[in-house]
Amino acid sequence: MSLIEETIDGTLQPDGTLALDRAPQLPAGRVRVVVQVAVATSSRPRGLADTIAEIKVSQQARGFLGRTAAELQADEDARQADELDYERQMEAVWSQSRSGAPKSTP
Predict the structure, then answer these.
(1) What stretches of 1-106 show up as alpha helix (H) in DSSP?
(2) Fewest C-beta in 10 Å: which of 11, 67, 90, 106?
């Protein structure tokens, strides 16, 4: 039995399936697939957007959906409410001091 092999680039989809760049030129039958991350051959350096895209693909492959816009907005609303509460507490403290609240700078 002779070893027949072929190297074909492709893309690993978030659901775990493979999309090959071209059809293999091998006879039909069982095969063994070894998946390796392809080294980027781009002449441009990897940037933040590339890293974020890779993280997103990885998270989707694991079924991670991330936070919804409503969850993010609720957290932002809570943060702003906390800041407002803190400012009110500081104003109460400043009003009890001799010099009053610090002068705001433009």
Answers:
(1) 48-61, 69-95
(2) 106
